[in-house]
Amino acid sequence: MSMSSITLRINGEQHRFENLDTRTTLLDLCRQHLKITGPKKGCDHGQCGACTILINGERINSCLTLAVMHDGDEITTIEGIGMPESLSDLQQAFKNHDAFQCGYCTPGQICSATALINEVKQNWPSYVTSDLKNPDGLLVQEIAERMSGNICRCSAYPNIIDAISEVLKREVAKQFDTSGSTTPTESSVQGSAVSGIWSPPPSQTQLGNQNNKNTSNTGGRS
Ligand code: FES
Ligand code: FES
Question: What are 154-170's pLDDT values in tens digits?
């Protein structure tokens, strides 16, 4: 059995591990070695997203990565995002919108959504993004696509999207304010309200409709 010694920084605290079995996943290290039980083991093979955490601010399925690969990395679990007395905006929004039932997927959903907001702010495209200048970051379809790695067996999806949409809108507006650019247009926020429908059909723009005269420079996909 191969062993290794590493130091990990998790939720702002340094943890030293001597002779760690190199086969230990980051998820097992959190849950079993450190009793950090926010990240959940749903499937243990990258299918459900319940184990999502942040590594250097980016989301990852912790069941699919080995702890020894992250010596020196900054790791954040849901406990590092906020606790009951210090909820993050997204955690509060999930509460306000009743965006869970059993709650098993929720830590992963919130870690994932935390990274999603930063990705949108940095103009990272998703598979359904049709225009990088107006990343459709507030559309239901955009959020649904970006959250597609996080499964909710209770199917709380409409409320999850509502919660994320609320914070995303606020964060994007803040960014526009500080950058001095024009605020997002009305059309960019259309469809951000969810009314019990999980996955509405994509808009014509997102489909890159040929009849739309915007196929030349919008980054639309065919
Ligand atoms: S437990 Fe990691 S993706 Fe399901
Ligand atoms: S709230 Fe139960 S699995 Fe999502």
Answer: 999 999 999 999 999 89
Sign of the alpha-carbon torsion through 153, 165, 49, 87? negative
Best residue among 32, 53, 61, 104 to mutate for probing ligand 1's pocket (most ligand atoms within 8 Å of CB) is 61
What stretches of the chain adopt beta strand conformation (E)? 3-10, 13-21, 52-55, 58-61, 74-76
**Residue 94: nearest ligand to its CA?**
2
Q: Is the pTM of this model over 0.85?
A: no
Domain residue limits, the chain = 7-81, 89-207
According to CATH, the superfamily of the domain at 7-81 is Beta-grasp domain (3.10.20.30)
Among the atoms of ligand 1, which is closest to the Cα of residue 149?
A: 3
Does the domain at residues 89-207 carry the CATH identifier 1.10.3720.10? no
